[in-house]
Amino acid sequence: MSDFYFALPRFIAKLAGKHAARSEHNALEAHGIGAVIFFISYLFGLQFVNLRTAVWQIAIVLIVLLFATWVFWLIVLYINALILKLLRALGFFRTMPDAYFQSVLIGTLTTLFACELNRGGSWFSIIGIIWMAAVIANLAAALVLALTDAESRARD
Amino acid sequence: MRSEKWLGHFAVRGVFWRKYLDWGVRNLPFYFYFVPLCFCTFFFFFFAAPARRAIVANLAVVLSGSSRAMNHLRAFRTLYNFAWTIAEAAIYKLKKAEFKYEIIGTKWLDALGTGKGAIVLTAHMGNYDLGAALFAQKFNREIRMVRAPEPDPLTAEHLAVTLEQTGAGSVKVAYNTESTMLSFDLLNALRRDEIVSIQGDRVVGDVTQTSGELFGRTVQLPNGPFILSLVAGVPIFPLFIARCGLRRYRIIVREPISVARTGCSREEEITPAVQRWCAVLQDVISLHWDQWFCLAPVFAGNEGRSPDV
């Protein structure tokens, strides 16, 4: 469990004196991050739902919203894949893996949703704040890791 | 007719789902697989009703005394494992990602890898496609894999290409439809010291069968592997690939089974081997019941009643 994909846990592992290589083998990241992203987009959708109705209606809406959120991501990611295809045909991003391109979109959209949740003022805002803090900390950790790795490479 | 054919792509065994999986693996970051796989499991849990019912019926016998309601949840867990298993096979095929595996029964795996022709007898368990590819890569040996034919021709075509890509050409697929010709092909392959992999936990179609006992019930199993072993004079290696975490597998190899000529009838000659295979299969299924992807009822007449009744 010492290998991580995201910069923040790798940075924390490094601070703890452990060697943490970048890998896609961490089960917590593989299951947890996707679930959190989905949860934030679900909460974002929930803001537009009128919850002052009968309980059975709310239950139906909550289930439908679950599938609507999935369909939303499917459509967005499919359109993004088409955009990438077009950009590659025009000569851009030819060496960038598809997953990186999609990661940028997923990260940006989720952060926008988190900002919206934050503006909402309810307990949703706590989720929004936690996500934004995690994104900022991850970016900062990536920067520090890049600088320290470059420094150690220069020393070698 | 044309619209029916088009709609057929979206059927449970249609090619759409295989292509959708490939698209997801190519396009999505690894941390985004979890949610679509959960949704796909939900979808198949409700729409692949015969498969769900078969898993529930099989579990009722495997986990003796278990409740039907709990077995539905266990069926969900089995389908969820199945989703991850085929997703990880696609990840290996398309990304050539690194997979970790541990081996239980190293000496028998080495014997299989370095020996002459042999039959690998496995079950619809864990990631047998990935396992075959990893084995072919590790020992630089060619494997001939016998599979039940897919009902959808486009899915069959997609699966055949997938298996050949996953095994980098070392895994050849043969479908158990052209029965007599296939038997001769497999016999010749064994005599050329090739490895033949067969799934021996259930009978599909018109293949010749023999009776065995699993979990106290009489089951029908294919007798092909045992007859082949007898005729070709090669051992049978029980081998299973169980998923034990994200991109982590356990290769379980058990002691080889030999089918000896005794001068009795063929059925009598293979009976001890069938019994040993049933004992191994029962043991492994008991440990990994949540990865037994046998999507057809195996235990005759067990549906809808407790095995204890």
Distance between the termini of chain B: 47 Å
What's the Cα radius of gyration of chain B?
19 Å
Biggest sheet, spatial arrangement of strands of chain B: 1-9-8-2-5-3-4
Instruction: Estimate what percentage of residues of chain B fall within beta strands.
Output: 15-25%
Largest interface, with Cβ-Cβ < 8 Å?
A: A-B, 26 and 20 residues
N-C termini distance of chain A: 28 Å
| Uncertain ranges of chain B | 302-309
- Give the helices and strands of chain B as they follow along the chain: HHHHHEHEHEHEHEEEHEEH
Helix content of chain A: over 70%
Morphology call of chain A: globular
Count of alpha/pi helices of chain B: 11
CA-based shape of chain B: globular
Number of strands of chain B: 9
What summary fits the major beta sheet of chain B? 7 strands, mixed
Order of helices and strands of chain A: HHHHH
Low-pLDDT residue spans of chain A: none
Approximate strand percentage of chain A:
under 5%
**Strand tally of chain A, please?**
0
Keyword list:
heterodimer, A: 156 residues, mainly alpha, 76% helix, globular, B: 309 residues, alpha/beta, 7-stranded mixed sheet, two-stranded antiparallel sheet, 11 helices, disordered C terminus
Task: Provide a descriptive summary of the structure in words.
By secondary structure, chain A is mainly α. Chain A contains five helices and no strands. In chain A, helix 1 crosses helix 5 and helix 3 runs antiparallel to helix 4. Chain A is globular and about 65 Å long. The model of chain A has no long low-confidence stretch (mean pLDDT 89). Chain B is of the alpha/beta class. Helix content of chain B is 50%, strand content 17%. Chain B has helices spanning 2-8, 15-27, 34-47, 49-62, 68-95, 106-114, 128-139, 153-166, 179-191, 224-232, 266-287, and strands spanning 100-104, 118-122, 143-147, 171-175, 195-199, 209-214, 217-222, 236-245, 248-253. In chain B, strand 6 (209-214) and strand 7 form a beta hairpin. In chain B, helix 3 (34-47) crosses helix 5 (68-95). Classes of the chains: A mainly alpha (156), B alpha/beta (309). The interface between A and B is medium-sized, with 26 and 20 residues.
